[in-house]
Design goal:
The protein contains 8 helices and 10 strands. A hairpin with a 4-residue loop joins β8 and β9.
Length: 264
């Protein structure tokens, strides 16, 4: 497990004070694992909060770092914590589930599931539409469109990188208003009167790029869900094409299926 004493923690673990009794026959790593499990269960260590570093726990409790690492490894195997590359070990939250029966933006989707959504702008500007973007938006290849790349988070934990490409007539979208509202769909509705009516979404799986590993805090062997979505307005015209990379260990998709006709 990584150990960065100066890491930027998303939650404080200062109130967590484990007690290890070396006189007991129970191995120290099991005692520490149980102490950490108990802290997670009672909310002393909440989803998104960082565990104390290996070095910090080893020094505080008088244990070897190997002992602390073994406790961390067992918590990871149990699905209670996760290692974020170059950042530390964090308490895992419940996965965010996208229900594929309606068109929702990330903000409303996360809030509906009890998460607090947030976004960080990574890039915004006019770009030439490649063939995939041009086909989705029904424009010529090379047409200048506004691309907005954002890091999407749930309860402050990085979840997805999204690159939204907007139809040419939406190039005057206010980025300042987008920052204030957080929701692109809400911003489009307020500024242009556009609301999503339906969408076509294609889902795949792949390994992350170096950039995605860095901003999502994942290792190169953690798969991402590759989502491409074209969104249409009430007039039937496409107004948005989004490429998203979601953390495969934190995100899953749910389909609501109905029974078909007998014999179908």
């Amino acid at each position: 497990m990584a150990d960065d004493a100066g890491r930027d923690r998303e939650g404080s673990s200062a109130t967590f004070e484990p007690v290890i009794d070396k006189a007991l026959p129970t191995p120290a790593y099991l005692q520490l694992r149980e102490e950490l499990e108990r802290a997670i269960e009672i909310g002393a260590l909440r989803p998104g909060h960082a565990l104390p570093s290996e070095r910090e726990l080893a020094q505080t409790l008088g244990l070897s770092r190997m002992t602390v690492r073994r406790a961390f490894d067992e918590l990871g195997a149990a699905g209670l914590v996760e290692q974020r590359q170059g950042s530390g070990t964090y308490v895992k939250g419940h996965p965010l589930e996208q229900v594929l029966d309606r068109v929702l933006g990330f903000t409303d989707e996360a809030r509906g599931l009890g998460f607090t959504p947030s976004a960080r702008m990574l890039e915004a500007g006019m770009v030439a539409a490649d063939r995939e973007v041009a086909t989705a938006l029904s424009v010529d290849v090379g047409t200048r469109v506004l691309r907005i790349v954002r890091l999407r988070c749930a309860d402050d934990a990085p979840l997805a990188v999204q690159a939204a490409h907007l139809a040419p007539h939406l190039k005057t979208l206010s980025l300042e208003q987008l920052e204030q509202l957080g929701s692109l769909y809400r911003c489009l509705e307020e500024q242009f009167g556009i609301r999503p009516a339906r969408a076509r979404q294609v889902v795949g799986a792949r390994l992350p790029t170096d950039h995605e590993c860095a901003v999502l805090h994942i290792a190169h062997d953690v798969p991402v869900l590759d989502l491409d979505r074209t969104t249409f307005g009430d007039d039937g015209r496409p107004f948005e094409f989004v490429r998203s990379a979601y953390r495969g260990d934190h995100y899953r998709m749910v389909l609501h299926l109905r029974a078909g006709e007998p014999g179908a």
